[in-house]
Write a structure and sequence with these properties.
The structure holds three protein chains of three kinds.
Chain A (H helix, E strand, L loop, with lengths): L4 E3 L4 H10 L3 E4 L5 H6 L7 E4 L9 E4 L2 E5 L4 H6 L1 H6 L1 H8 L4 H4 L4 H7 L7 H6 L3 E5 L4 E5 H4 E3 L2 E2 L6 E8 L5 E7 L10 E8 L2 E7 L6 E2 L1 H7 L7 H14 L10 H20 L6
Parallel strand pairs in A: 1-3, 2-3
Antiparallel strand pairs in A: 4-5, 5-10, 6-7, 6-10, 8-9, 11-12, 12-13, 13-14
Helix pairs in contact in A: 10-11, 11-12
Chain B lengths: L15 H5 L15 E7 L5 E7 L1 H5 L3 E6 L23 E2 L5 E7 L2 H10 L1 E6 L6 H6 L12 E9 L2 H6 L3 E9 L11 E6 L5 E5 L4 H12 L6 E5 L13 H15 L3 E4 L2 H7 L6 E9 L5 E13 L5 H10 L9 E10 L13 H19 L3 H8 L19 H12 L1 H14 L3 E13 L12 E7 L5 E5 L8 H13 L6 E3 L18 H26 L10 E3 L2 E5 L2 E4 H10 L5 E6 L19 E13 L5 E11 L6 H21 L4 E2 L2 E2 L17 E7 L16 H4 L1 H13 L5 E2 L3 H9 L2
Parallel strand pairs in B: 1-12, 8-29, 10-11, 14-15, 18-19, 25-28
Antiparallel strand pairs in B: 1-5, 2-4, 2-6, 3-5, 7-15, 8-13, 9-10, 9-12, 13-14, 16-24, 17-18, 17-23, 20-21, 21-22, 24-25, 26-27
Helix pairs in contact in B: 6-7, 9-10, 10-11, 10-19, 12-13, 14-15, 17-19
Chain C lengths: L1 E2 L2 E8 L2 E8 L4 H8 L18 E4 L2 E4 L12 E3 L12 H8 L9 H14 L5 H7 L11 H18 L1
The chains are: A alpha+beta, B alpha+beta, C alpha+beta.
Chain lengths: 282, 762, 163
């Protein structure tokens, strides 16, 4: 690991200004991915801006039916948050599937999304929830869909001089959802496929990760199901088939493309089935 | 039956307390002032001719103390194992990816990293040989020393195989293959070499075989064996992975220490460790079995190929063990077993728990199941029908005379599992569940204890025992403690001999300074070999004590004496405390420090004919696996694993259970999760996020069952057991997956993709 | 407080307040092992995948190979050396010995630290919770069975003590 400058700013403005003044600067959130890359000399920051002191960037808050999750909230905090466990338990499930407990005690939800891995655990639940990323330049904020925030493998929409401060989930109540992660081994492995499906009233949302350069919503399938209270097995199968066709997976160490399509087909169908069947609580 | 006071008890590990407190000293925890850090510059190509290695830039970096290539080696440029065909540093050709080309010592790790990056090489790349199939075509030769790309081959033949197959009611023929397995000991390879006065080098490290390391350091430095003292540090797991390769690690550190006159530490990074250290051989097996209508095994014909990598290392003996065990623990009148260790341009494979047997057991035990189904015989029954009993003859013609526990292990596993009930529960589960299917599978195996005939001059072991005047005892052996609990087991063996509390017996750290070359710590031999050597030493001391007691008129005749419960019984109920006798004997100038030397007797195997007694004795095991397969993700979960193991008399049940559970877990890993991906000879899965070993969540219920069948020739009746728990897990899981899904898997590991494809093709 | 790549940090290690100059690229693991001789935490992979380097950072178990020493400024660190006095033994350590949960011992300090944090938060965990908590600590020797038994036993004893 190379040597680098290190700063722990006390304000958001200071953090952002450090970032804009230093071309080789990186924000340090949990560091569980960043430090590994630095160890292997894949990244050589000239400056690390540790956001640890910015306590306003940590916490989960429900205000007037809008859920705020600050970017530096630890993954383990999302996993065990009482409000979330009640309202959006599948988001807690996703948190619980990120790395090992040791990683979750340090990694942050914002880091997971900024890092923008196609397999990012929070990718599918957040885009299925229509979550919005709150971006700050130290003074003003702008807001965009998380789906657009993640722009490609390891790429995000932040401009220099900006920082992801958190997420807004509008109207979080009344979602029934399921998170699913297929990996070769429990928990610690990266996903071969991950899927979030949500039903809100008669609106359906399907998001799939690890099958494209970023997590994807499959809107054709969603539209097909829209308005139908209890879609039958044939229709669910059709929706699942569309999902398996629309993804663009690759062969890699964690599975072949064909295998991924197969998993997506079976699991979208199964998860949707669970949501639409009577008693599908979560 | 003998009543034991120490043997058979769960005596606390000697090293447990230091280990839970974090004070146990592993190699990287050891620090001497001025210690340098060593690293290795490695070949970026898998195969080619070395045109140039440029170390000039690296040598100029401040803080770099030495950079060496092959030409700088003062002794011989070899890694001594069996055939001595491997250079420590490649000189003219590179034969596998990341083969060592140059070595560096620097003041700190960052400088070291910089220096390694500054070295450049020019290699004229040539096309390599990456599979067994390609290698056998002999179009390209991996190493000129072996013109046919075969390091070693064996043939074992018995009876009239042709006739057996011609007259058989059923013949079953299949091909099998298995992938690598990485040891993944949690402590990476580590060595520290320190120059002492008088031209002596002290080597401190993590290893299984101190005498191998001594040999290697002496060879590369060109100094006498007496100039090399090897000391075992706490060793963070071995599993075969610290058998031969620590020689390489020590040789690198020793060369740099020799050059700089400073202590040098070489600790491998995990990616380096996974990429370049030995592994379980990938294999390809053709296996044909012949059966009578009632399920008797009539004949076996098999060709067994190991993908050995670029150098022969331990492959000749790994292959031998596989060949000897190819039929399994069954009577079989006609066999033709051919084994080949094949050269490829990949990392050299070596020892891994089971040593060439897990691959062939996977084939033979899958064959058994296929035959059972075709014959309509229960898979348990077909194994019982064929299992060894007293007087049975092995494939090499060895007649088994005692301590043959295979049937006992079958009974024990079946009854622990309550197999009838379990099967009906599985059937009703499968009826109810749509997406989940359960199944049960069985496997049986045997294991030749110790090195066996092919071990040649290594079949020996020394021990030193010293009784002090206060009745406490110290002992030293030449085999290594690497976590398995050897110190404790041997301490129990010694304390049983003197009839004293094990807490009065203390092991000394293993070192080449303390006992003579005792061979390696492999082949489940430590308890058996070092235990017997210790008992020889103890008997010598006891015999001196007896003479002393006779001469002092403490006893009338030697046969009256018993050493028990801390006392020496001197006839009838008369007794004196062992501590008191020790003190008297000390005052009487009795020799209470003795050396024991044990040579296993009775192997007669002849390599040329493939006939004879291969090992002095065998251990036995039966495994039953119960699995659940998710029919949507095709992920397999082992719900329960029952492992019934017979290894003579058990010395420490808790430690033995730990060995079984740990071996079982590694077996689950090899069967289901550990999938090494290699492309053009380059290992792509070089960390724990891509090469996945089981976590605590991936292991179901593991139930060890210990079955005893004492062996006269073993210390207090013990045989050896460290490897068996891993060896038969793959076929038990594979057979269980078949039972659950109807998909027959012939390739290890059993990946979800393979189960999926098998399922779809039906 | 910094000068070039060297930073002055203040933190508490096993209850003792410490001040130290560290380089920005030094990890907490390195500092604990090399500056303080606290070698109980081990480097098994250097990439946060094995858990052998587990220490508690402000009460939560983390991989200390993925914590920069500078990040530990103002933090409380607890290592295996700090959970029991030199001549005493913590109930978790005792249970690990009795239940055979120790083989090679390389993963053991990390494993015990994670178990320690678990039992602080949840004095009465069930088997599933134990497994989940320990899932980031790899062990290649034991097959985990005796580790689970040891943690269960330790929980029981510690609860008994608290009354």
């Amino acid at each position: 690991m190379n040597n680098f400058n290190y700063e722990r700013p006390r304000s958001l403005r200071e953090a952002v200004s450090l970032r804009s003044r230093n071309a080789g600067a990186f924000y340090l959130a949990g560091g569980t991915d960043l430090i590994v890359q630095m160890r292997d000399d894949l990244l050589k920051p000239s400056l690390l801006i540790d956001l640890k002191a910015l306590k306003q960037l940590e916490g989960i808050d429900m205000k007037k039916d809008v859920l705020h999750i600050a970017a530096l909230t630890k993954v383990s905090a999302v996993e065990m948050d009482r409000t979330l466990l009640r309202t959006l338990p599948f988001l807690c499930d996703a948190a619980g599937f990120l790395g090992s407990p040791l990683t979750r005690n340090k990694a942050t939800i914002g880091g997971n999304i900024c890092n923008a891995s196609p397999a990012a655990e929070f990718g599918t639940p957040l885009i299925a929830l229509n979550a919005r990323a709150v971006i700050s330049d130290g003074e003003k904020t702008r807001v965009m869909a998380v789906e657009d925030f993640m722009t490609g493998v390891k790429k995000n929409a932040l401009k220099r001089g900006e920082l992801l401060s958190g997420f807004i989930i509008p109207d979080p109540k009344g979602h029934k959802g399921r998170f699913f992660k297929k990996s070769r081994i429990k928990l610690v492995d990266l996903a071969t496929v991950n899927i979030t499906v949500i039903k809100k009233g008669t609106e359906y949302r399907i998001a799939i990760g690890s099958c494209f350069i970023k997590p994807l919503r499959i809107r054709t399938a969603e539209e097909m199901l829209r308005g139908i209270k209890e879609p039958d097995a044939r229709l669910l199968g059709k929706a699942a088939r569309i999902c398996a066709e629309e993804i663009k997976p690759i062969d890699d160490l964690r599975g072949t493309a064909d295998f991924r399509r197969d998993i997506v087909f079976h699991y979208v169908k199964k998860l949707l089935g669970e949501l639409t069947a009577k008693g599908g609580q979560r | 039956m003998k009543h034991y006071s120490s043997v058979g008890k769960n005596v606390k590990r000697y090293d447990a307390e230091e280990k839970v407190k974090g004070t146990s000293v592993f190699t990287d925890d050891l620090n001497f002032p001025g210690t340098l850090y060593a690293g290795v510059y490695r070949s970026p190509e898998s195969c080619g001719r070395i045109k140039k290695i440029n170390t000039v830039k690296a040598a100029k970096i401040p803080g770099v103390r030495a950079v060496m290539t092959a030409k700088d080696i003062p002794g011989r440029n070899i890694v001594p194992v069996v055939f001595d065909d491997q250079p420590l540093l490649a000189e003219k050709y590179v034969r596998y990816h990341r083969e060592p080309l140059a070595i560096v010592a620097a003041d700190d790790r960052n400088t070291l990293k910089k220096a390694l990056k500054a070295i450049e090489c020019d290699i004229e790349e040539t096309e390599g040989v990456f599979t067994i199939r390609e290698s056998l075509k002999k179009k390209r030769i991996v190493n000129g020393l072996y013109k046919d790309n075969i390091f070693q081959q064996y043939v074992v033949e018995k009876g009239d195989v042709k006739k057996a197959f011609a007259g058989a009611f059923l013949t079953v023929k299949n091909s099998y293959s298995t992938n690598y397995q990485e040891h993944a000991y949690l402590e990476p390879q580590s060595m520290l070499v320190k120059p002492e006065l008088n031209g002596i080098f002290s080597v401190f490290g993590s290893m299984q075989c101190p005498f191998y390391v001594q040999d290697a350091v002496s060879a590369v430095l060109g100094i006498g064996l007496a100039n090399v003292s090897v000391h075992l540090m706490s060793t963070g797991g071995g599993f075969g992975g610290k058998e031969d390769v620590p020689s390489i690690v020590a040789a690198v550190a020793a060369l740099l220490s020799h050059r700089t006159g400073r202590p040098v530490k070489y600790i491998l990074d995990r990616d380096e460790d996974i990429s370049v250290m030995s592994k379980r051989h990938p294999s390809y097996i053709e296996y044909e079995s012949a059966f009578s209508k009632n399920g008797k095994l009539l004949g076996v014909r098999t060709d067994y190929y190991l993908d050995a990598g670029a150098y022969s290392t331990l492959s000749p003996i790994v292959l031998w063990r596989g060949v000897i065990h190819a039929v399994g623990p069954y009577e079989c009148p006609a066999v033709s077993i051919k084994g080949y260790a094949v050269a490829t341009n990949k990392v050299p494979c070596g020892a891994y728990r089971g040593f060439g047997t897990p691959q062939i057991i996977f084939a033979s035990e899958t064959q058994m199941d296929i035959a059972a189904e075709k014959l309509g015989i229960d898979p348990v029954r077909i194994r019982e029908l064929n299992a060894f009993k007293k007087g049975s003859e092995t494939a090499t013609g060895q007649v088994l005379k005692e301590s043959i526990g295979i049937r006992k292990t079958i009974d024990a596993a079946v009854s622990r599992c309550d197999i009838g009930k379990t099967r009906s529960e599985i059937a009703s589960f499968n009826k109810k569940q749509r997406y989940k299917k359960r199944g049960l599978g069985i496997s049986c195996l045997f294991y030749g204890v110790g090195l066996g005939a092919r071990g040649g001059p290594l079949q020996k072991g020394g021990a030193f025992v010293s009784v002090f005047k206060d009745g406490t005892v110290q002992f030293s052996v030449g085999t290594a403690e690497m976590g398995q609990g050897m110190y404790t087991v041997l301490g129990q063996i010694v304390s049983e001999s003197f009839g004293i509390n094990p807490s009065a017996v203390l092991p000394q750290r293993v070192s080449t300074e303390k006992v003579g070359d005792s061979g390696p710590t492999v082949a489940s031999r430590a308890t058996f070999i070092s235990g017997n050597a210790l008992l020889i030493a103890c008997d010598k001391i006891k015999s001196s004590l007896l003479s002393f007691m006779l001469s002092e008129k403490m006893i009338r005749k030697a046969s009256d004496v018993k050493f028990e419960k801390g006392y020496v019984y001197t006839g009838g109920k008369k007794k004196i405390p062992f501590t008191e006798l020790s003190s008297k004997a000390w005052a009487g100038r009795v020799k209470m420090a003795e050396y024991g030397w044990y040579l296993p007797q009775g192997t007669s195997f002849d390599i040329r004919t493939g006939r004879g007694d291969a090992y002095v004795v065998y251990s036995y095991a039966t495994n039953i696996a119960i699995v659940e397969v998710d029919m949507l993700t095709y992920r397999t979960k082992v719900l329960k694993l029952i492992s019934a193991e017979e290894f003579g008399k058990v010395v420490n049940p808790l430690l033995a259970e730990g060995q079984i559970q740990g071996g079982n877990a590694q077996g689950i890993g090899w069967s289901l999760y550990e999938n090494m991906v290699v492309k053009n000879g380059k290992i792509l899965t070089d960390d724990f996020s891509t090469y996945l070993i089981p976590s605590i969540l991936d292991i179901g219920q593991i139930e060890p069952v210990i079955v005893e069948e004492p062996y006269k020739g073993g210390p207090w009746g013990a045989k050896g057991m460290g490897e068996m728990p891993l060896m038969g897990i793959a076929p038990s899981i594979g057979n269980a997956i078949y039972d659950a899904t109807g998909t027959r898997l012939k390739k290890v590991p059993f990946t979800p993709e393979d189960i999926c494809n098998g399922h779809k093709s039906k | 407080m910094k000068k070039g790549f060297v930073h002055e940090i203040n933190f508490t290690v096993n209850g003792i307040k410490r001040a130290l100059s560290v380089h920005s690229n030094e990890t907490l693991l390195k500092v604990l092992r090399e500056h303080y001789g606290l070698t109980g935490a081990k480097e098994g992979c250097g990439g946060g995948e094995c858990g052998a380097c587990t220490v508690l950072l402000n009460g939560s178990p983390v991989n200390s190979c993925l914590v920069l020493a500078v990040e530990a400024d103002n933090a409380h660190i607890l290592t295996i050396e700090g959970i029991a006095a030199k001549d005493s033994i913590h109930p978790i350590q005792q249970a690990f010995i009795e239940y055979g949960a120790v083989q090679c011992g390389f993963c053991t300090p990390g494993m015990i630290m994670t178990a320690y944090a678990l039992l602080q938060k949840n004095p009465d965990p069930d088997e599933a919770q134990i497994k989940r908590a320990l899932s980031g600590n790899l062990c290649r020797c034991t097959g985990y069975v005796q580790i689970i038994e040891a943690v269960k036993a330790a929980a029981k004893r510690m609860k008994g003590k608290r009354g």
